[in-house]
Specification:
The complex is a heterodimer of chains A (about 110) and B (about 230).
Chain A (H helix, E strand, L loop, with lengths): L9 H12 L8 E9 L10 H21 L10 H15 L17
Helix pairs in contact in A: 1-3, 2-3
Chain B lengths: L5 H9 L3 E7 L7 H14 L1 E2 L2 H10 L8 E6 L4 H14 L4 E4 L1 H5 L2 H10 L18 H8 L3 E4 L13 H19 L5 E3 L10 H10 L3 E3 L3 E4 L7
Parallel strand pairs in B: 1-3, 2-3, 4-5, 6-7
Antiparallel strand pairs in B: 7-8
Helix pairs in contact in B: 2-4, 8-9
Classes of the chains: A mainly alpha (about 110), B alpha/beta (about 230).
Chain lengths: ~110, ~230
């Protein structure tokens, strides 16, 4: 687990969701943070320490956004649309750790 | 594989199985300066990802570059992907990825606007001002020499609209055959309209494997597909 203190509240999460859904997509790209999944078998262990460090932070942040935006009392666990929404906000706000859109939602990552 | 959940995504992330992607659609020349600025910030913070890099990640888990990877992905096969986006990526040293609706390229220029409007291909004003909207097959071939090109179905089709073997032939098999014939390479990736993933429909999954695709891009994952079963 990464060690970070949550500073995201529901209002900030909903603001981010609204922002990332109202962009002019002919004027900027859509950032995404995707999981790599091998449907043959288990993935080999990722060798990059940085990918583990970043991945741990992303995992925690995704859990926070999911709790705030797509709570399980409302959304099914396998509701792919809900998973996508949480991931959209994650990528929109935290795609580049060095240049977050909202500093209060940033996380420090060291390899 | 079932539908992704928050927990399955978190587990993959904790294992370091992450890759950053930035999706673009039409990139008009009027926005070239802004696009270059945006891509330059990515080029500064991240390393380019080639198909060989992606394959190595899945085979060995190794990443040989000093910064994390990023894939700028330019969807549909717009002319301006070749004339605006690709030169910027060349200048910045980024490897661009081009998922192309192959019938868009094969449609005559006078029918490309209609094709786009009939198949959920978003147009900006500048797209309508030129002689054509889609790139040519020759442009795609040139792109394939230094970037990654792969099918995004033939007609910009979603999995839900591909219902029988004829549909599969047209939207899954033929795009790869046509692209491979033009480039002399094997297109290894595929993406459905709406980004459906592997594991939702065995009918569609078998076709992707049978056609010879290796990777499927979706809204939540890049999936390494199983090998074809021996006959």
């Amino acid at each position: 687990m990464s060690e970070h203190q949550s500073q995201i509240d529901a209002t900030a999460a909903h603001d981010l969701l609204r922002e990332c859904h109202t962009r002019r997509l002919d004027r900027e790209g859509i950032p995404m943070v995707l999981a790599l999944v091998d449907e043959r078998d288990a993935m080999p262990r990722m060798m990059s320490p940085q990918s583990h460090a970043e991945g741990a932070v992303y995992a925690d942040l995704l859990g926070e956004y999911a709790t705030l935006l797509t709570p399980t009392e409302v959304f099914r666990r396998a509701d792919e649309g809900a998973v996508i929404v949480a991931m959209q906000v994650l990528a929109y706000a935290h795609f580049a750790f060095s240049n977050p859109r909202h500093s209060d939602a940033d996380r420090e990552v060291s390899a | 594989m079932s539908a992704p959940t928050i927990e399955s995504q978190q587990q993959a992330f904790r294992n370091g199985q992450i890759l950053r992607v930035v999706n673009y659609h039409s990139t008009p020349a009027a926005g070239a300066e802004a696009l270059e600025h945006e891509l330059a910030t990515y080029a500064e913070a991240f390393s380019p990802v080639t198909m060989e890099d992606l394959e190595a990640l899945f085979e060995t888990g190794e990443w040989h570059k000093d910064k994390p990877g990023v894939l700028p992905v330019f969807y549909e096969g717009y002319r301006n992907s070749a004339t605006v986006a690709a030169p910027i990526c060349d200048k910045l040293g980024l490897t661009a990825w081009f998922p192309v609706a192959t019938r868009f390229l094969s449609t005559s220029p006078e029918h490309q606007e209609t094709f786009a409007r009939a198949h959920s291909i978003y147009l900006v004003e500048e797209d309508l001002a030129g002689e054509r909207i889609a790139m040519t097959w020759e442009e795609l071939n040139e792109l394939s020499e230094r970037h990654v090109v792969f099918p995004h179905t033939a007609s910009h089709a979603g999995l839900e609209s591909v219902l029988d073997d004829d549909d599969l032939q047209r939207e899954v098999f033929e795009p790869k055959a046509r692209m491979d014939a033009v480039t002399g390479q094997s297109a290894k990736a595929f993406v459905w309209l709406h980004g459906s993933g592997y594991g939702r429909s065995s009918f569609h999954d078998r076709a992707l494997i049978g056609a010879g695709y290796t990777f499927l891009f979706s809204n939540t994952m890049i999936q390494r597909l199983p090998e074809p079963s021996p006959e």
